[in-house]
Design a protein that fits this description.
This protein has about 375 residues and is mostly helical. The chain has 2 domains: about 280 residues, Hypothetical protein af1432, CATH 1.10.3210.10; about 70 residues, no CATH class. Helix content is about 60%, strand content about 0%. The structure holds magnesium ion (MG).
Length: about 375
């Protein structure tokens, strides 16, 4: 397939930090995707919470299935826009590698604990995982991914961190845009979780059918489904409506982004970078629906006391583990201990790196071992 002039290609790439001979059968960005899939951090996504704590039920999304769903949406959009699908896929598969156990509550707890030492941000940590923490190669730390993959993983970055990181975070200082591939990954992430959280929310019984049916776009999707198949009810009705709404968002994203690329007359990745705004975005009306869906999920699902109860238990688990390892670094596995003579910040970072890499269930088991109990009521953290 011929790529658009604004697509990232191996030939135009800024390459890898450590020189390697080119792969025989694969493109360099396919190689990146394969490296992400073979990483330890990727496998651990299976047992990390997305919204519902991992052990609450086998049917809920995890960080792994979330990453796969994001990837499928992103690949469709990348192909439709004629950009580098392999790069897009490498970015989306890697985008959540830096997530802590217990979802956003875990990240907030680790960020609080790390505040005196520069904080903890899962997006920045995803880059740290692929650049430093994966230990699989003889010649270098990390996965030695292509520049554009690493840059795409870094979705946002504070100026002080950007200065520390150098070239890969340059665009946050210069005000340049991300590549089209990275922009796709970003929006696909948001579209994916809005849709799968409706499904998971309804399945959990926490999000009520009436609440989501009252949303104008979802309500319309339900009406359309019933018009075609009047007897449709229950899960099939919900799945059909979610699928139809997801199609509407993905199609809108493709059409609106194509129009922006055409209007801007982008003829290279440099043109895309130099624009004052992102080119991959929903049309204004659909963006408004996207934001109202997000608000609805916050109100009806994420902030529900039943969701909070479990995520708070996760946050307390992270807090306690951080305190325990910090006071006694010898509890860390030998290869994860800070080097002798490391200052307080380096010791705290070693602890944060270790905790961030944990799966939910490993964190719970470690907490039981080191603190002597867990925070889950009714034995619901039993496995
Ligand atoms: Mg995500």
């Amino acid at each position: 397939m011929t790529l658009a002039a604004y697509a990232v290609t191996t030939a135009s790439s800024r390459g890898r930090r450590f020189a390697e001979s080119p792969p025989t059968w694969r493109d360099e960005f396919q190689r990146d995707r394969d490296r992400v899939i073979h990483s330890s951090a990727f496998r651990r996504l299976e047992y990390k919470t997305q919204v519902f704590v991992n052990h609450e039920g086998d049917m809920f999304r995890t960080r792994l299935t979330h990453s796969l769903e994001v990837t499928q949406i992103a690949r469709t959009v990348a192909r439709a826009l004629g950009v580098n699908e392999d790069l897009t896929e490498a970015i989306t598969l890697a985008h959540d590698l830096g997530h802590t156990p217990f979802g956003h509550a875990g990240q907030a707890a680790l960020n609080d604990a790390m505040r005196p030492f520069g904080g903890f941000e899962h997006n920045l940590h995803s880059l740290r995982v692929v650049d430093q923490l994966e230990a699989r190669y003889a010649a270098f730390d990390g996965l030695n991914l292509m520049f554009e993959t690493r840059e795409g993983i870094l979705k946002h970055c504070r100026p002080d961190k950007a200065r520390e990181l150098g070239a890969v975070a340059e665009r946050f200082l210069s005000g340049q845009q991300a590549t089209v591939e990275a922009q796709i990954a970003n929006v696909a992430d948001e579209i994916a979780y809005n849709h799968h959280d409706i499904d998971d929310g309804l399945r959990s019984g926490i999000l009520s059918f009436d609440a989501i049916a009252g949303h104008p776009v979802f309500g319309q999707a339900l009406a359309d489904c019933r018009a075609v198949t009047p007897n449709l009810t229950g899960k099939r009705l919900i799945y059909t409506a979610i699928r139809s709404m997801l199609g509407l968002f993905a199609n809108d994203l493709i059409a609106a982004s194509r129009a922006r690329l055409a209007t801007a007359g982008c003829a290279s990745t440099a043109d895309v970078r130099a624009l004052p705004h992102a080119v991959v975005a929903l049309s204004p009306d659909v963006q408004e629906h996207h934001l109202s869906l997000k608000r609805l999920l916050h109100r009806e699902l994420y902030s529900d006391p039943r969701v909070r109860e479990f995520t708070n238990a996760g946050a307390r688990t992270v807090d306690d583990l951080f305190a325990r390892y910090t006071e006694e670094p010898g509890l860390l596995p030998p290869e994860r201990r800070p080097p002798p003579g490391a200052d307080e910040a380096a010791r705290a970072r070693a602890v944060a790196d270790y905790i961030a890499g944990m799966t939910d269930r490993f964190a719970i088991a470690e907490h039981r071992r080191l603190v002597g109990h867990d925070y889950w009521p009714d034995g619901r953290a039993a496995h």
